[in-house]
Amino acid sequence: MPDRRTRHLSRCLADAFLAGAWNEDGLVARARQVLAPGPTWIPPLARRVLDAYHRPPADRPRELAAFIAFALERTPSPEYGRPAIRRWLLPELAMARRRWPVPELSSVGALARHLDLGEGDLAWLADARGLERTADDERLRHYRYMWLPRPGGPPRVIERPKARLKEIQRQLLHEVLDRIPAHDAAHGFTRGRSARTHAAAHTGRHVVMRLDLEDFFASVAAGRVFGIFRTAGYPEPVAHALTALTTNAVPVDEWAAVPRPAAAALVGAHHRLGRRLATPHLPQGAPTSPALANLAAFALDRRLSGLAAALDLTYTRYADDLTLSGGRRLGREAGRLGTAIAAIAREEGFRVNDRKSTLATRGRRQLVCGIVVNDRLNVARTEYDLLKAILHNAARSGPAHENRAGVPDFRAHLLGRIAWVQSLHPARGAKLRSQFARIDWEK
């Protein structure tokens, strides 16, 4: 590995090479501007760079610097010498090929202007140095933290960005990420698709198999997010800044406050979650995380869709919920298929949570995202009966009596639940609306 001085020299030369015309004379002249004295190995180095890069890698200054460092390490020591850096040129960076209509941001300065930030403010909010991890004062942090108990698993850690960062993340979501399509198999957090469309793909099938991905957001590390922004065409420095704006590492003291599970079977899952949260990852609570998680799972969706097609199965994914459905063959080969899916998930950076895997035939209630799919889309009978009882009691005793959870807008809450039932089963929804109409909201 190159030493620190070689890496520093290589970065300086890479920026100089990218600061003007891409030909031998230009590269040599700019290298001699930045180094003193001008070493004799500059022309051979320039030719080697031009042989490797016929066009300027204007979106890849770090890659170019790594190539130069590699070349310098193989230069004979007397020739290599130790030239001093006397100035530093600013490179002329550019977007790579844009596959999607994302905003053109060729430099960190352009990103700052696009977000209406000064470059210092951008550096502070991006926190590329990871100061969030060790900051003791909550005022110096960009996120607020809370944990929620989770049945059958370690607590769920919520990382909520503060107002300014959240606003920037929403802007990036709408102006960048919404323009990059997820895989067709992804139904969560995707315009035009929903839990309903996810479930509808599996109605009337003999066997429905469901698997769950462990710590879906936390499993997506910063390196994968960087790859998404690079694939979108952003130069390395811009992709690095965008990655820093959309990932986070949980402070040590916040994770220490999360209770360890009492069940021995959950200790391993708790430990894995802690390791994931300790390094930059997609924070659960940031507006950008669902879209980035979908894009990070693109290769997983592509491979599982291909596997399903080869076995005459249907595959869809809603966030961390993987669902496959098909005929009796699926029931016979579920064990081998589950093993294959777990292996593919590992190769793609995810882990299947075996505790939540289920297999249901038509003789049992088949649920996908809480929706019954045996013959047609339907709400679970227990959910329907509970809502019907709430409406009946609210009409008899008054809505305040039934609002035991203290929901702020109980009326809108009930209407939303009724609308959900009606979207799945119109006749049942109509009955619930009739009961709702009998509630006296003045009580």
Task: Put the structure in a nutshell.
With 443 residues, the chain is of the alpha+beta class. The chain has 21 helices and 11 strands.
Helix content: 40-55%
If helices are DSSP runs of H or I spanning 4 or more residues, what is the number of helices? 21
Distance between the termini: 75 Å
Number of strands: 11
Strand content: 5-15%
Look at the structure and give the mean pLDDT.
93
Topology:
Blueprint: H1 4-17, H2 24-34, E1 35-36, H3 42-52, H4 61-73, H5 77-80, E2 84-85, H6 108-114, H7 119-126, E3 143-148, E4 156-161, H8 163-175, H9 195-200, E5 207-213, H10 222-231, H11 236-246, H12 252-256, H13 267-278, H14 289-296, H15 298-310, E6 314-318, E7 321-326, H16 328-332, H17 334-347, E8 352-361, E9 367-368, E10 371-372, E11 378-379, H18 381-397, H19 399-402, H20 410-424, H21 426-436
Helix pairs in contact: 1-2, 1-4, 2-3, 7-11, 10-11, 18-21, 20-21
Give a description of the structure:
The protein is an alpha+beta fold and 443 residues long. The protein is built from 21 helices and eleven strands. The strands form four sheets. Strands 6-7-5-8 form a four-stranded antiparallel β-sheet. A three-stranded antiparallel β-sheet has the order 9-10-11. Strands 1-2 form a two-stranded antiparallel ribbon. Strand 10 (371-372) and strand 11 form a beta hairpin. It is elongated and about 90 Å long. The mean pLDDT is 93.
